Amino acid sequence: MGVSLPLLAIVLFVYLFAFVLAIGAERRRSTAKVVPDQYDDMSYCSYASDASTIYGLAAFGLLAIAQTLINAVTRCYCCGRGMMSAGSNKLRLTFFIFSWASFAAAEICLLAGSARNAYHTKYRVTFHVGHLSCATLRKGVFAASAALILVTMVTNIVYYWLHCRADTGGWVKHQNEGLDLTDAKNRNPRDLM
Question: Tens digit of pLDDT for each residue in 108-134?
């Protein structure tokens, strides 16, 4: 099995789109401020948009799709047929483990960040009596997931390349290439005598 350029293009696009969504989620995190109620002596938290929750969940889904594509093609390292002895199995296994570890960390950051960003403080407090703290997501959660998405992309692409190289022994089979010297379909057996 050689390296499939259309598959690589699709996987790269999905990873980079997930990266852009994670960066967008970091930039559009919910902000909150304490606002006094105009009808009574209470204050409450007023939140801005929840766009980063949707961006984070979309990046979560795209990252899962990209990971599934790579592992479906490579048969998840251990479920395929035996590999030829090109390259190091240890190196391939190392990239496989690092790709799964960075994938899991990125998914956890995206899911936790989206859940925490969607949480809004619902209670109210009497004006000037208590301190109301509005819950918001800390800076850097979605940025960390974006960095982990890039690490996952690089480790998965290197793992895929090593897997393809080991699958073919470093060689790619060429079929039906070149020029035939004889036309096998129109050859008459009597002409050979």
Answer: 999 988 888 877 666 656 555 556 667
Question: What CA–CA distance (Å, rounded) separates 61 from 91?
Answer: 28
Concatenated DSSP letters of 67-89 = HHHHHHHTTTTTSSPPPPS-S-H
**Average predicted confidence (pLDDT) for the chain:** 78
**Tokens 């199995």 identify what position?**
89
pLDDT at 13: 96
| Tokens matching residue 83 | 């590999």
**pLDDT for position 131:** 63
In this structure, are strands 42-47 and 32-36 parallel, antiparallel, or unpaired?
antiparallel
pLDDT band for 176, please (50, 70, 90 cuts): low
Distance CA 39, CA 35 (A): 12
- The total of other beta-carbon atoms located within 10 Å of residue 72's CB is 9
Which 8-state DSSP code applies to residue 41?
Answer: S
Residues 6 or more apart whose Cβ sits within 8 Å of residue 184: none
The partner residues of 45 in beta bridges, in order of sequence, read: 34
Structure tokens at 58: 């979309």
How many other β-carbons are positioned within 10 Å of the β-carbon of residue 78? Answer: 8
- CA dihedral (71, 77, 83, 85) in degrees, to 10, reads 110
Q: What per-residue string of b and e applies to 87-96 under the rule 16 or more CB within 10 Å gives b? A: beeeebeebb
Listed in sequence order, the residues at least 6 apart from 90 whose beta carbon sits closer than 8 Å to its beta carbon are none
